[in-house]
């Protein structure tokens, strides 16, 4: 029984224990007519029993999956102590990898056929057979142990059932513990991401001075710019990347924020219910279109149009320009602004709107002076989400703006962004011991700090303009 099947069996046992605990709780109190004598509802007894059946079993299964490979390797190495005594750590790791690969297909190999298998290979096949037997034994022990623990847990909690048993309180404590664990996992994941990026960035800054990275105006990690460059591996001035990211993001936001906000105002205040029910879902379809499709649209349609129109005006427009990428990116993030802003405006109490109109204000004045200030926290959140989406976009920039790190504020020229360079630096077989590869982590750290700063600013704006309405 593999892990997936075992999880399915555990869930079936938990479902059965839920049903059985309800029946058992009713029987404990003396029948369905006396169920009101229970201090908790029968379904709460069932949920508590289902939790006791599933949580310990799934926890042990998770812990087992973490240590199983190490335990099997330990027993396998112990049985082969004479054969692997002279192996180094790397040789032993390669040897065990070979054994694992052979064990996946050991049923097709012939142990006694020297025509196809030499002595060394035959010895490995014999070890692979031993590995398969170990895995089978440990799987059998795991399955029996987990099922016994599930049954023992159910038996224990059923033995505690009395009419006065506080199953609701105990169940809520378990649910609270689950929520606490989930929150802890999210927090630890965030901390792990920060630390992993931070440690690699520190390693990068030990080779490249931080001021050269932050204030440098040349970005060429693949080609050495001068003989005395650190490591001789290129220039790591990130200013062109920051400027390119800012330029494309500003173009996208200049399009997305006013258009998205006007769409939200129209849908929430002027459109009929029928039109709103059709237009809003159609608009939100744009949020589900893959970014590579937007990239094709930018590269094959928008960029040629901008180039031809610029040529007609006598302007020099690059085939890949920041303007093309920014416009298409703005189209992509319009649904984020419009949908969330629409929800924020619609959530404003109708009494505010009716009071403003009753005092003689026009609908436009009501929207500008009442509804928008009241919905400002939600609108700021929508803009912040759209801004983060624009900063982190990659495919549209690669396909429409290019990968040249040009330090320019001209939207008609080709630029690149931080995210594009991160992808470029980490593409292919890379060793994480050179400034070229570690530069990706430094760029990631700058993105993280930028997003953190945006959140802090947005939080201060929201707190400043937040108002409480009854």
Features:
single chain, 470 residues, mainly alpha, MetI-like fold, 2 domains, two-stranded antiparallel ribbon, 17 helices, 74% helix, 1% strand
Mean pLDDT: 81
**Share of β-strand residues:** under 5%
| Secondary-structure element string | HHHHHHHEEHHHHHHHHHH
Give the terminus-to-terminus CA distance: 58 Å
**CATH fold assignment of the largest domain:** MetI-like fold
Total count of domains: 2
Total E-strand runs:
2
Largest sheet: 2 strands, antiparallel
Number of helices: 17
Q: How do the strands of the widest beta sheet line up side by side?
A: 1-2
What is the CATH level 1 assignment of the largest domain? Mainly Alpha
Structural class: mainly alpha
Rg, rounded, reads: 32 Å
Low-confidence stretches: 110-116, 223-227
State the CATH superfamily name of the largest domain: MetI-like
Identify the CATH architecture of the largest domain.
Orthogonal Bundle
Global morphology: flat
What would your notes on this structure say?
With 470 residues, this protein is mainly α. The chain folds into two domains: 163 residues, no CATH class; 247 residues, Orthogonal Bundle (MetI-like fold), CATH 1.10.3720. The chain contains 17 helices and two strands. Strands 1-2 form a two-stranded antiparallel sheet. Helix 1 packs parallel to helix 5, helix 14 packs antiparallel against helix 17 and helix 16 packs antiparallel against helix 17. The two termini are 58 Å apart.
Quick rundown:
It is built from 17 helices and two strands.
């Amino acid at each position: 029984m593999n892990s997936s099947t075992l999880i399915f069996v555990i869930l079936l046992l938990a479902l059965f224990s839920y049903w059985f605990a309800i029946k058992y709780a009713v029987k404990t109190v003396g029948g369905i007519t006396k169920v009101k004598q229970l201090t908790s509802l029968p379904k709460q007894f069932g949920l508590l029993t289902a939790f006791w059946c599933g949580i310990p079993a799934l926890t042990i299964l998770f812990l087992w999956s973490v240590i199983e490979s190490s335990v099997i390797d330990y027993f396998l190495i112990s049985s082969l102590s004479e054969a692997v005594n002279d192996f180094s750590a790397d040789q032993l790791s390669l040897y065990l990898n070979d054994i694992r690969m052979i064990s996946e297909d050991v049923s097709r190999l012939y142990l006694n056929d020297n025509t196809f298998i030499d002595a060394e290979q035959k010895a490995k096949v014999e070890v692979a057979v031993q590995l398969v037997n170990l895995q089978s034994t440990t799987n059998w022990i795991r399955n029996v142990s987990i099922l016994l623990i599930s049954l023992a847990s159910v038996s224990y909690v059923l033995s505690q059932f009395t009419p006065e048993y506080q199953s609701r309180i105990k169940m809520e404590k378990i649910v609270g513990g689950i929520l606490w664990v989930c929150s802890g996992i999210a927090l630890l994941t965030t901390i792990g991401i920060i630390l992993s990026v931070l440690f690699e960035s520190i390693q990068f800054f030990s080779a490249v001075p931080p001021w050269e990275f932050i204030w440098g105006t040349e970005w060429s990690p693949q080609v050495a710019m001068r003989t005395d460059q650190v490591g001789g591996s290129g220039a790591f001035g990130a200013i062109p990347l920051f400027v390119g990211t800012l330029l494309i993001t500003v173009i996208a936001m200049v399009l997305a924020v006013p258009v998205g906000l006007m769409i939200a105002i129209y849908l929430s205040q002027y459109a009929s219910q029928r039109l709103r029910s059709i237009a809003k879902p159609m608009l939100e379809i744009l949020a589900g279109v893959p970014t590579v499709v937007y990239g094709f649209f930018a590269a094959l349609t928008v960029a040629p149009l901008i180039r031809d129109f610029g040529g007609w005006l006598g302007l020099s427009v690059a085939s890949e320009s920041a303007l093309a990428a920014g416009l298409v990116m703005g189209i992509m993030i319009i649904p984020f602004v419009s949908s969330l802003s629409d929800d924020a405006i619609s959530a404003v109490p109708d009494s505010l709107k009716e009071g403003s109109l009753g005092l003689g204000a026009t609908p436009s004045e009501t929207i500008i002076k009442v509804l928008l200030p009241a919905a400002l926290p939600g609108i700021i959140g929508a803009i912040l989400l759209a801004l983060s989406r624009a900063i982190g976009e990659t495919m549209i920039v690669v396909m429409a703006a290019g990968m040249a790190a040009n330090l320019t504020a001209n939207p008609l020229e080709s630029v690149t962004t931080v995210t594009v360079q991160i992808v470029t630096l980490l593409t292919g077989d890379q060793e994480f011991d050179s400034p070229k590869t570690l530069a990706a982590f430094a760029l990631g750290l700058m993105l993280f700090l930028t997003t953190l700063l945006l959140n802090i600013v947005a939080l201060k704006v929201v707190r400043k303009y937040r108002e409480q309405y009854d």
